[in-house]
């Protein structure tokens, strides 16, 4: 029912992540409440127009309504809203920001926004990212990876291209090289501001093989819309492994180590 409502009534964009199910459910519940309020208000409006018509009420009533029906209805709305907020919205948020999947069982990537591209970095075969420091940041080294750190040598770096295996959680550490961007993948129901000097993690679990657009959700300059050029490719583990292999050593050239 929730899914049908989301797809056919609200026209929600394609959902391709596990964590997004709770997000969509929350959006649907909020709309159900709004629908109930809309119908309720319309019925009351019709009733008031009929009940208080001039022909029947030639003289004003100075006492008004005596019973408490409206207070009880109001209380009911408050309770419904409290349940949505405390019972649904806050737990969804808590899961998004507090309950991260284990990094061991996840695809871990670094994301660096810049005007107007997404730089993506993988740890490479050793599973360890090269050390980063602000002082190493340059056009040829957007992540500021320490060129002397051997762990960074096998890192993989791409531009606007994220590949992840299906069914495995993805942890993305989001940052920015210049201004505030926002790393948003609608199909994953994930969105995280990219802020210079901060590295903020976010996570999602892709469930459907496909190619999904990455958006920048903060107006970040003249080429802001070009940041839709980023794509997330969700593929089978075998295809992912093949892709990773084809990219090995890419950080060395992208990072300006040679
Ligand atoms: Cu941007």
Order of helices and strands: HHHEEEEEEEEEEHH
Number of helices: 5
As residue ranges, the low-confidence spans are: none
Radius of gyration over all CA atoms, rounded = 25 Å
Strand content: 15-25%
Main beta-sheet strand count, sense and barrel state: 5 strands, mixed
Structure summarized in a few sentences:
The protein has helices at residues 2-9, 20-51, 69-98, 237-247, 250-254; strands at 107-114, 117-122, 156-159, 161-165, 170-176, 181-185, 190-194, 200-204, 210-216, 230-235.
Task: Provide an overview of this structure.
The protein has 258 residues and is α+β, with helices and mostly antiparallel strands. It is built from 5 helices and 10 strands. The chain has a 5-stranded mixed beta sheet with strand order 3-2-1-5-8. A 5-stranded mixed beta sheet has the order 4-10-9-6-7, covered by helices on one side. Helix 1 crosses helix 2 (20-51). The chain is elongated. The relative contact order is 0.15. The mean pLDDT is 92. Copper (II) ion (CU) binds next to loops.
Write the layout of secondary structure elements.
Layout: H1 2-9, H2 20-51, H3 69-98, E1 107-114, E2 117-122, E3 156-159, E4 161-165, E5 170-176, E6 181-185, E7 190-194, E8 200-204, E9 210-216, E10 230-235, H4 237-247, H5 250-254
Parallel strand pairs: 1-5, 4-10
Antiparallel strand pairs: 1-2, 2-3, 5-8, 6-7, 6-9, 9-10
Helix pairs in contact: 1-2, 2-3
The structure holds copper (II) ion.
Copper (II) ion (CU) binds at residues 113, 181, 216, 218, 220, 224, 227.
């Amino acid at each position: 029912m929730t899914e049908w409502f989301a797809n056919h009534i609200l026209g929600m964009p394609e959902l391709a992540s596990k964590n997004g199910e709770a997000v969509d459910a929350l959006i649907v519940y909020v709309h159900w409440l709004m629908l109930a309020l809309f119908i309720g208000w319309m019925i009351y409006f019709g009733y008031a127009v009929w009940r208080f018509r001039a022909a029947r009420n030639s003289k004003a009533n100075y006492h008004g309504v005596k019973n408490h029906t409206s207070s009880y209805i109001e209380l009911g709305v408050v309770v419904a809203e409290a349940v949505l907020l405390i019972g649904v919205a806050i737990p969804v948020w808590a899961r998004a920001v507090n309950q991260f999947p284990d990094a061991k069982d996840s695809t871990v990537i670094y994301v660096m926004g810049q005007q107007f591209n997404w730089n993506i970095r993988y740890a490479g075969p050793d599973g360890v990212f090269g050390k980063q420091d602000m002082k190493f940041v340059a056009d040829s080294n957007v992540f500021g990876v320490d060129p002397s750190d051997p762990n960074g040598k096998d890192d993989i770096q791409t531009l606007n291209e994220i590949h992840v295996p299906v069914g495995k959680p993805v942890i993305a550490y989001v940052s920015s090289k210049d201004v505030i961007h926002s790393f948003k993948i609608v199909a994953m129901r994930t969105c995280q501001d990219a802020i210079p000097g901060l590295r903020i993690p976010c996570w999602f679990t892709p469930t459907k093989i496909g190619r999904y657009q990455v958006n920048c959700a903060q107006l970040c300059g003249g080429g802001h819309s070009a940041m839709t050029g980023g794509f997330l490719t969700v593929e089978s583990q075998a295809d992912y492994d093949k892709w990773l292999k084809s990219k090995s050593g890419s950080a060395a050239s992208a990072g300006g180590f040679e």
